[in-house]
Design brief:
- It contains 7 helices and 22 strands.
- It is α+β, with helices and mostly antiparallel strands.
- The relative contact order is 0.15.
- The C terminus is likely disordered.
- Among the domains are: about 110 residues, Thrombin, subunit H, CATH 2.40.10; about 80 residues, Phage tail protein beta-alpha-beta fold, CATH 3.55.50.
Amino acid sequence: MLSASDAFLTSLRTSHTVAIEVELLQPGQAAITLPVESGGLDIDRTARVRRTGSIAIPMTLDLDVRSLPFGSYVRVKRGIRFADGTRELAVLGYLRVESVSWQTHEDTASLELADRMQQVSDEVLLAPWVASGMKPSAAAIALVTEVFGNAITYTSTIPPATEPTLVDVVYNGNRADAVADLAQAMGAAAGFDPDGNFRLEPLPTLAASAVWTIDSGATGVMVSAAEALDRTQTFNGVLVQGQPSADGPPVTSLVVDTNAASKTYWGGPFGKVARVETSTAVQTQAQADATATALLNNQLGLGRQVSVASVPNPLLVGGDTVQLVFPDGRTELHLIQTHHVPLNATEPGTFVSRSVWSALGTLQAPRLRAYLGTEAWEQLRGAEVVAA
């Protein structure tokens, strides 16, 4: 979750005045503030382009909207205007203008927006790109640096000791595909933060405590919630195949759900449903094991989906752990997958979370952990690395 003052967080649970600001940044020109009639931003932690959105602006502005898709960006913010007139705003995204559309007999133009990963995808590799001799994180950063140079910052939180030196790795075609392949080989996620800077970080996992509570009641922020179960995107095993060198033997790792109490137990009624990933950037057995484990932990339990409407909290991002308190008293920790933030004062915010504990049956995870004890709990939920 993005940082904010205590006053900001407290105000979200009471009646408050919404503040919205959208800055337009055109090449070679000073930033201007756009009046926004409607719109919203969508954040999806699993998507290649994490942040997308749309805004409607008046055509009466002294602005040639037809020029905006040729390199213009917008910085979108939402926050609170306090009683003393001061504002506190959170940056939701730094987004490129993808397209502009309007009706000739109306006075509103619609802008479609996407974060900087779309630019990375657009700028394809024009010749074979050799990553050999580099660490995966350094290669991923180098690919993005060729697009944005020193206009942005680059951060990797991947432990250097876990990264091998790449051998015989060459990429062609889509630059964003190459970045995604390198990130996956590290069990990591690659993307741009709200300020438009590039980040490589481990795949998010459910935290022991929540950054925000979404609850019902007089001071609660939950508007509604809907729950569903769907196995179509659920895997109980991950097979990672890598190639250390052109003339060396491949490395393979299969990680499966070995928890006999799990609904997705490998070889149980759910079956043996494996996700198969192949990457030349996976070059050691330890790397293959770590990548397969990270992907499985990120995938297990995705069958239970909860869609929540709540008072918008612009600080939340995909991968945050939130606590849901349902009207019937159930309390659960959930990992946010997608988050929609409206750019108006009347529409609720919505997000979709997927509970990584759904495979454990009907007992709630925090209660089960307290009942079993930490050591037994970790053994129960742990995945086993099996050499293929």
